[in-house]
Specification:
13% of the residues lie in helices and 13% in strands. It is α/β, with parallel strands linked by helices.
């Protein structure tokens, strides 16, 4: 059996459809108004109607009241629990880069917070952006150290 040549490949029959040729006489079925009907907003060129348009009726998005606000000063932390840090080596410093390497957080540039769910037995050094009081107490009770900027 000979090797297949790319020039021999063909599209499946019926898979390619021709371009819809508009305004080419009444015999084409798409002559005169080119399938747009008579007059009206949708028959004009550039017929773009916003998805929320309701025919002149007041839009739903304008009828419903606005509620609340977005706090631009809100800080969101990537959370890691103590139980996730249980199997770490004593020599390694736990920081955003090492947490990213173990796939416990998604981005090393975002803020990281350690929470106290679980136990930790070996002493570790933790350098993160925030830590809960319970987590700090458990790490220091195991002989570890905690370094948090501004806290």
């Amino acid at each position: 059996m000979a090797a297949m040549d790319g020039r021999e490949l063909k599209y499946a029959p019926g898979s390619i459809r021709g371009v819809k040729r508009l305004g080419r006489g009444p015999g084409s079925g798409l002559g005169k108004t080119s399938g747009r009907g008579h007059k009206g907003q949708k028959s004009r060129s550039g017929k773009k109607i916003h998805p929320s348009f309701e025919g002149g009726q007041m839009r739903l998005m304008r009828r419903l009241p606005k509620r609340g606000f977005t706090n631009i000063f809100k800080k969101t932390y990537q959370v890691v629990n103590l139980e996730d840090l249980q199997d770490w080596d004593k020599e390694i410093t736990i920081d955003p880069e090492s947490l990213l390497a173990k796939h416990l957080i998604r981005k090393a540039t975002d803020l990281v917070k350690i929470l106290g769910d679980g136990e930790i037995s070996q002493p570790v050094t933790v350098k993160v952006h925030a830590i809960s009081a319970a987590a700090r107490q458990k790490i220091e009770a195991a002989g570890g150290t905690v370094e948090v900027p501004n806290g």
